[in-house]
Every structure is written in C-alpha cells, then in structure tokens.
Amino acid sequence: MQDMIKRIVQKQIEERLKAYPAVALVGPRQCGKTTLAQSMRGIYFDLEQESDRLRLDLEWDDLVAGRELLILDEAQSWPEVFVRLRGAIDRDRGRKGRFLLLGSVSPSLMTHVSESLAGRLSLVELTPLLLSELKTKASRRRHWLCGGYPEGGVLEPRRYPRWQLDYLALLAQRDLPTWGLPAKPQVTDRLLRMLAALHGQVWNAAQVGQSLGLSYHTVNNYLDYLIGAFLLRRLPAYQANIRKRLVKRPKLYWRDSGLVHALLNVPDERTLLAQPWVGASWEGYVIEQALGELSSQGRNFGAYYFRTSDRYELDLVLDFGTELWAVEVKLTSSPSPEDVARLNKAADFIEASRRFLVSQTRRPSGNERCLSCDLPTFLEQLR
Predict the structure, then answer these.
(1) Residue 108's pLDDT band (boundaries 50, 70, 90)?
(2) What does the alpha-carbon distance between residue 281 and residue 231 come to, in Å, rounded to a whole number?
(3) Is 154 helix (H, G, I), strand (E, B) or coil?
(4) Which of 17, 40, 176, 294 could link 181 by a cystine bridge, Cβ 3.0 to 4.6 Å?
(5) Could you read off the pLDDT of 66-105 as tens digits, one per residue?
C-alpha cells in the first residue's frame, strides 16, 4: 500500500534533477525515501550492503557513462563514493539528473556533501507521510495519533505504538551514536522522554540539564543531534519592532506526533483527548503539517512563533518575503468570535497580511484576509 501513495515532494525532486547533476533526498530513517526513489526510473544501489558496493565499484565507469539515473542509498556509509561523484560530475558539468543520493542527515553525510559536492547538488527533504498525501478516511483519522511513518500505524493500526518505541530505541542504541552523539543510550532514552513532556513549550536547556545532571551546553549539543535526525524542531521566536516585550527563546516541537504520543504512553485517540497537554499536541501537529506541506513543494519561507510578555500569541508566523501569515491553532470544533478577535489583535502587532484560526470546525468562515477553518482547508491555502 505504501508504494501506491503519491508523495508531493516527487515533483520537486524531478524539477531539481533537471537543474542539477545530483540531488540528495534526506529525511528521517523509515520515512519512505527508498520506496520513493525506487518508484523513479533508475539503477538502485544500497551502499550499506557490501555486495552492492562491490557491484557499483566494478561497474562504475559503464554506469556513469550511461544515461540512466543512479540511485545511491545510504551514501554516507561508503565515503569514497563522494570523491568519485565529484570527478564524474566535473568531467561533464553540463549533464543534469545523473545521481540521486539518499540518506538520513548525519554529520558525516553533510560533511561529505559540503566538501565534495558543493554547487553540484541540491538538497530535498522528505517528511513522513503528510495528511494531504493520505487518501482513505481511516488513515487520515489515525494520522494525528499515529504520526506519518508508513510502518508506524497510519496504514496498519496494529503497528502503533510498538513500532515507534522500537524505532526510537534503535536510534538511541545504534544510529545516534554512529552519527556522533556522545550520550549513552540510557541517557538518550531519558532525554527523549523528558523532551516528549516538553513538546510545544519554550525551550529551557538549563532546566533539562539540571534534571539529567548535565550542563546546558551539553543538553543543547545533544538537542542539535536530535534536530539533525529530524526528530525535533526548534521554532524560533519572531522578533518585531513593537512597544511590547517579546519572548525570545525558541519553542520545541516533536516533528512526528506518533513518536511523542508513544513516548507519553497514549494507546488510542480517546486517551489522547483526555490528556492535559492535548492542546499542545494538536498545535504541534498542525504546525508540522503546514511546514511539511511547504517544504515538499520546495517553497522558500521562514517559520516562527510570536508571543508578547502579556500573552498575545501566534502559534505560527509564516514569512514568505512578500507576505506575512499569522496562524493560531485551537483544539475546538466551535471557535468563538473572541478567538478570532484575539488572533487579529496579535496579528496586527506584526502587520500580518493574512490570518488563520485553525481548529476542528466543520464550517469554514471568514474571508481572504482572515479565515477560521479546519486543517485540510488551511493546507489547501498553502498550495
């Protein structure tokens, strides 16, 4: 079923391949990179497999002289391929669309890309499955609870939450240490559970460090690895020149709702809705769907939140350069006129050109400038 799902980002990959000799498709492990790449016409090699490395080595000259796309999965596991790629590209700089590299963003991958392929390669990010990519009502209904990993329950309900817990355990024990995270797996596990409880909150490294017996410098260093592994998102505060004191520290969100729900021991939607932090979960889910949609389209944008010291707040500020959009997220099926008024008051501070109140309402209301709507309607506006 997974390979039948059309990924929004595929169009962006195809466009970048027409403009660059190589494209790197990056994203978290198990988000569907290999499935997407294999659906595109090309010759596939898994460079974690010794047999595939040998085959690529022996056939290299013929392959790079040919016209077919070469798909190199887990490219960072065979560093010498980057030198070969640079040589092949530089011998014929005019040829586009020759190589598609796949990898989870680890420091080693980004080092090889920046050292060997700067100016020769375009980076494209693949997210787990987005709400707008799901076609059945059942999978769309499960998406908030289970998250978007194809094997994590959104397509097969019985896989959640065991799949998520196994996934995070493997990251803590194998991948993160391989990528350079100096923490022991037990410390990483404790940190992940602590960060799950802080989902949607303003980031305070000193507070987390105190709980773990670590300095705030160390905690921030660990957090950088988790952000690089696409587990978390640090959303910066929007800074405006207004006559109010503004909150300046970033907010922290888990990028996949299924991972945070599994860590917080939420087995089903009924339990989720009973949690005191359910509003923060819905807020993070809406934000990530919006940013994933824009990223998959290849749009250029800046993403922030906005909060004044007297609690005027916008959950998401989207800066498109020519336009500023203000978004407030509410977990309710019947948003009130007061909610809209407060949105407009906060949006006026930053002179936002468009304003959105995103809830679970069934009836959108408003106009082009200020719209109260559900998540699917908001995502349509982003297109």
Answers:
(1) low
(2) 15
(3) helix
(4) 176
(5) 999 999 999 888 888 999 999 999 999 899 999 999 987 6
C-alpha to C-alpha distance for 201 and 114, rounded to whole angstroms:
33
Cβ neighbours of 109 (radius 10 Å): 23
Omega within 30 of 0 (cis) for the link into 185 = no
pTM score, two decimals?
0.94
Does 3.40.50.300 match the CATH number of domain 2-125?
Answer: yes
- 202: tokens are 């303003």
Neighbour tally for 81: CB within 10 Å: 22
Task: Find the mean pLDDT for residues 30-46.
Answer: 94
Single-letter residue type at 175: D
β-bridge pairing 70-73 and 43-46: parallel
Neighbours of 38 (CB within 10 A): 14
For residue 322, the Cα-to-chain-centroid distance in whole angstroms is: 24
Band of pLDDT at residue 155, cut at 50, 70 and 90: very high
Cα-based angle 349, 350, 352 (whole degrees, multiple of 5): 115
pLDDT at 270: 97
For 276-333, the pLDDT digits (tens) are 999 999 999 999 999 999 999 999 999 999 999 888 999 999 999 999 999 999 999 9
Q: Is the pLDDT of residue 241 over 90?
A: no
Can you tell me the distance from the alpha carbon of 327 to that of 306, in angstroms, rounded to the nearest whole number? 10
Cα separation, 328 vs 287, whole angstroms: 10
CATH 3.40.50.300 residue ranges for the chain: 2-125
- Round to whole Å and give the CA distance between 155 and 140: 9
pLDDT for 240: 83
What is the distance in angstroms between the CA of the first residue and the CA of the last residue of the chain?
26
